[in-house]
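User: I'll paste a sequence; please echo it back and then give the predicted structure.

Assistant: Echoing your sequence first, then the prediction.
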Amino acid sequence: MAGIEARTGGQLLADALVANGATHVFAVPGESYLDLLDGLYAQRNRVELVTCRFEAGAVHMAEAHGKLTGRPGVAVVTRGPGACHAAIGVHVAFQDSTPLVLLVGQIPMNETDRETFQEVDYRRFFGPIAKWVTQIDEAARIPELMAHAFDVATSGRPGPVVVALSEEMQKHLVEAVDIGPAPVLPPHPAPDALPRLMAMLEKAEKPLAILGGSRWTEQGRADIAKFLTANDIPVAVGFRRQGLFDGTSAHFAGDLGVGADAGLVAKAKEADLILAIGTRIGEPVSQGYTLFDMAGSKPIIHVYPDQAEIGRVYRPALGIVSDLNAFAAGAAALPPVAAPRWAGWRASVRAAREAQAKAPSYEGPLNLAVALQELEKVLPADTIFTTDAGNFATWPTRFMHVGAKQDFLGPTNGAMGYGIPAAIGAAITHPDRTVLCFVGDGGALMTGQEIATAFHHGAAPIVMVFNNGMYGTIRMYQERTYPGRVSGTALTNPDFRLFIESFGGHGEIVETTEEMVPAFQRAKASGKPAIIEVRMNPEQVTNRATIAQLRAQATK
């Protein structure tokens, strides 16, 4: 092409990332993509290359970046074992509906189907857990396929795209024009969608909204809050979607997910109209598909950006295909219901949430419920929370409240090992905000080595490790099913304070209620990556039951 400078495939790949708006790349280096690394060196002033220690950690960081920005997080890993390690992060992005682009170095093309060193067929491997999987064998097609990868990751129901990169293709010199995103307008509600919604709402006696989904903008969150509060509708959030609605609002009903309050579950069953906005109404939200009748006896208004998800499990009374922020803008502009009849209903739903959040008395010097509620009072208004998976996570979910300007990132697929790398990705994405990670002792040692990445890149998350010396969730189920027969769930842990101090970070140990807030304040003031090890009472295996109580219930 006249006037077009020839570039290597590696350079074209790096330039394609820039053209499609990538600002960060989270990677574990490999010889299968040396040319891409060289291309990123040329773009080092426009794209920050974050060097990670484990591929799952790198993809979790990229996924957290995608959650926070609404743009595809980008991760790069090497072939074979690197790609296999990365798969858990792809699954998180898939079930969490997070835009993600994973680039995987690939074997030389002429060795295909020989089971050569580290060979994997990525279309078959990632096919069930990615929106699209492709392989680039011709450098000239890089701009086309990379632009499409970013489009697919963000369109409809967002999710992960995997792009394999043939090794020798990255070395080829070709002339090609960069391609960026197309100016595609998001889908808006059909002309009669909002009037029909309001007509159904006006007939309701006990409406309940459930918020979920991804790629909500700050304005979209504000708009949907305006619509729901103007109509005095109680609002629950889906599993690990606490950042979508102000938890301090009188309209907040709690979260419908794993460990949901029985009072909220009962209210959801009692409701006579469900506004499911952005949620797929998946297994955690629907309490194992028991919350509603799949045939649609309870009217559900389901708003979702992908028509294929509407009616997939629950037949709605009205399905609205729309970008969530576009729907929120349209709904916020509507006049509210003239005389809603459900003020008492809304108050009763809120009362159930307030009753759940009241801190009980717990045996021992640490009342974790009270400690977390005292901590909440001193947290910055724009704190970013990340959480791992496990029983520990129900403590902050039950007793803390995520504010309107705060963000909450958690794996809806229940992946342990997510919390720490997600916190590092969040701190790199927003270095001016406080990032607080909640993680159990089990998850902390799955990806805790990524703390090294925080030091390497100047990020300073605060990690709160809830240490009870066991895989607590599994122990809970074990005691319910096989009381007293403890098998495979006990753990031996390091001193987590010394662990972080060995990197040069700040460590704290909390063993009493009163120690929590001062420990956090010292950690924050240090300006360093920090760990606060919370030494819990192992007997208090959940925030609702002790091991002795579970055993007694199981033997009745």
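Residues 261 and 356 are 7 Å apart (CA to CA). The mean pLDDT is 96.
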